[in-house]
């Protein structure tokens, strides 16, 4: 039972960590379709802004200025939280691999292997909370930006939505949290 639970938690943690990495690297955190004719589709991300022409499918991307340049707070905070969540989830995944019962590492000392699984669960939980805070921070800021435009009657066909990268970050963080709960609570 314990080995099956560990493998299940490992699979969930691996998939969720991949989701977190993809969310950090991709460029569609906020979708902005400027025109009512839907001629173009604009995605803003943490690293660049891309516009896709819907008629011919041509996509052009503009990189943001240097990482040391002044950026909006939502981008800086989300970058920091997501990169930290990625690093913690990767560290937890490496620790979890060594702590699995099916791996021959430290096979003679099962108590140490169990502590490694617990430790991986704690680190994975910390990473998941940081990733969730980063994803939700960005989503709330997108919502507030849209609400501000609507309240000032500047809503001239501009439509802001959460992009798939934002949803991927939330899904990856939630999956890491569930894997963390499996490792911490259910291994006893």
UniProtKB/TrEMBL annotation:
<keyword id="KW-0965">Cell junction</keyword>
<comment type="function">
    <text>Claudins function as major constituents of the tight junction complexes that regulate the permeability of epithelia.</text>
</comment>
<keyword id="KW-0472">Membrane</keyword>
<feature type="signal peptide">
    <location>
        <begin position="1"/>
        <end position="28"/>
    </location>
</feature>
<feature type="transmembrane region" description="Helical">
    <location>
        <begin position="87"/>
        <end position="106"/>
    </location>
</feature>
<comment type="similarity">
    <text>Belongs to the claudin family.</text>
</comment>
<keyword id="KW-0812">Transmembrane</keyword>
<dbReference type="GO" id="GO:0005886">
    <property type="term" value="C:plasma membrane"/>
</dbReference>
<dbReference type="InterPro" id="IPR006187">
    <property type="entry name" value="Claudin"/>
</dbReference>
<dbReference type="Pfam" id="PF00822">
    <property type="entry name" value="PMP22_Claudin"/>
</dbReference>
<protein>
    <recommendedName>
        <fullName>Claudin</fullName>
    </recommendedName>
</protein>
<feature type="transmembrane region" description="Helical">
    <location>
        <begin position="118"/>
        <end position="140"/>
    </location>
</feature>
<keyword id="KW-0732">Signal</keyword>
<feature type="transmembrane region" description="Helical">
    <location>
        <begin position="162"/>
        <end position="187"/>
    </location>
</feature>
<dbReference type="GO" id="GO:0005923">
    <property type="term" value="C:bicellular tight junction"/>
</dbReference>
<dbReference type="GO" id="GO:0005198">
    <property type="term" value="F:structural molecule activity"/>
</dbReference>
<dbReference type="InterPro" id="IPR004031">
    <property type="entry name" value="PMP22/EMP/MP20/Claudin"/>
</dbReference>
<keyword id="KW-1133">Transmembrane helix</keyword>
<dbReference type="InterPro" id="IPR017974">
    <property type="entry name" value="Claudin_CS"/>
</dbReference>
<keyword id="KW-0796">Tight junction</keyword>
<dbReference type="InterPro" id="IPR003927">
    <property type="entry name" value="Claudin16"/>
</dbReference>
<keyword id="KW-1003">Cell membrane</keyword>
């Amino acid at each position: 039972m314990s080995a099956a639970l560990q493998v299940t938690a490992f699979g969930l943690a691996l998939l969720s960590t991949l989701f977190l990495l993809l969310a950090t690297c991709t460029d569609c955190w906020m979708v902005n379709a400027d025109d009512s004719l839907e001629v173009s589709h604009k995605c803003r991300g943490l690293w660049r802004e891309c516009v896709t022409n819907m008629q011919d499918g041509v996509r052009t991307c503009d990189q943001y200025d240097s990482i040391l340049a002044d950026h909006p707070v939502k981008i800086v905070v989300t970058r920091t939280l997501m990169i930290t969540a990625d690093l913690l989830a990767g560290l937890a995944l490496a620790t979890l691999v060594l702590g699995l019962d099916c791996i021959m590492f430290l096979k003679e000392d099962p108590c140490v292997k169990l502590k490694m699984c617990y430790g991986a669960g704690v680190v994975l939980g910390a990473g998941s909370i940081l990733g969730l805070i980063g994803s939700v921070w960005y989503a709330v800021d997108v919502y507030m930006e849209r609400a501000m435009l609507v309240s000032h009657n500047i809503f001239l066909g501009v439509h802001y939505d959460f992009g798939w990268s934002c949803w991927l970050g939330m899904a990856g963080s939630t999956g890491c949290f569930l894997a963390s709960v499996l490792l911490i609570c259910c291994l006893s």
